[in-house]
Amino acid sequence: MRNTAPSHAEPVGTLSIPGLRSEYIRLDANWGELTTRGVVVLLAAHLVGTYAAGARPPCRLGLRDLRRVDDFIGANLSERIGIENLAAAVPVSPFHFARTFRATTGMTPLEYLTARRIETAVALLRRPGGTVLEVAAAVGYTNVGHFRRLLVRHTGATAAQLRTG
Question: What angle do CA 155, 60, 115 make, to 5 degrees?
């Protein structure tokens, strides 16, 4: 049994599926079943590692794009902000934005937006005057109960505790 490569081998990119099948059968006859299967497994591993979607390094947003997003959030904190609005600030597609934002910051856009809103709310609550309802509206929440739950979840303190502390 000879272990030599065929002299008429085509580059992998030019072989069709039937061509690959016939080449596999021919190699199997010349090299033996275990060697041929090993070559096929190595080829498959190479193709998956090189061309699979997960093999590419993640794209990241640049500092300028992050500033644009952060400025947009700051300017529109009291408004309803969706992923489409944030993506338009960069500008990229919403899907690409969500993926690259998370790869860059380690947070989803919604997590970041919520953190910014709560951070601003804490600063507003520590100032004298203004009700919890006004603070919630100023940072984009129309449901005060939801705002209070998020506040406790993110800070570990109620609005009353933040005002006095």
Answer: 10
